[in-house]
Amino acid sequence: MTDATILLVEDEQNIASLVELYLKNDGYTVEHVGDGLSALAAAERLKPSLVILDVMLPGMDGLEVCRRLRAASKIPIIMLTARDGEVDRVLGLELGADDYVTKPFSPRELVARVKAVLRRTEPGEAPSEDDERLALGPVRIDGARREVLVGEQPVELTAREFDLLVFLVRNRGIVFSRDRLLERVWGYERPVDTRTVDSHVKSVRQKLGEGGSIIKTLRGVGYKADA
User: Fold this and answer.
1) Separation of alpha carbons 165 and 205, rounded Å
2) Fewest CB within a 10 Å sphere: which of 89, 97, 115, 131?
3) Which domains does the chain have, with CATH numbers?
């Protein structure tokens, strides 16, 4: 069981009720709201452990809610997007969302994502010496400060994007399948939507600019970091 509080922001009542049921059965405390303004007020009041945030909301949409939440705190955010909403997924990641789930989805998968994100965002041990300084091509990483530089320019990555980049650079030259990355970086214990990896890689490459070329795609296989 867990004492984590989840803020669920979803305007479709049937989806919200099902998600709430599964989360509560797993021991989470859940508060549900159905619009963006209510989400911001609830987040300020509750200080939840994680927010599940639908993109399509009445009034203020989920992307704007994500932007405002991220400007105020580092609260973990999982976004719910339409099956064909690639633009929404990428925008959500760029705005600081930690993960996304596409509709329609399995409530069990969503609960697994919640667990994985919470595990990844829990305070951990101090970085080892091997993690403190990494470099590949023009990209330099300070693991202790969780900072990334391309040349002399700082790059702002989300927590999950940073973890993905560090993992690939630390294991440079090794090819990882999408499922393997989901297991090692996201902490998922079973296969889920591998587009999660693709969207994060795309976002990291864009943010790194010229440094993005260190992440190589091996078609049909996966990704690796190499100069």
Assistant:
1) 10
2) 131
3) 5-121 (3.40.50.2300), 129-225 (1.10.10.10)
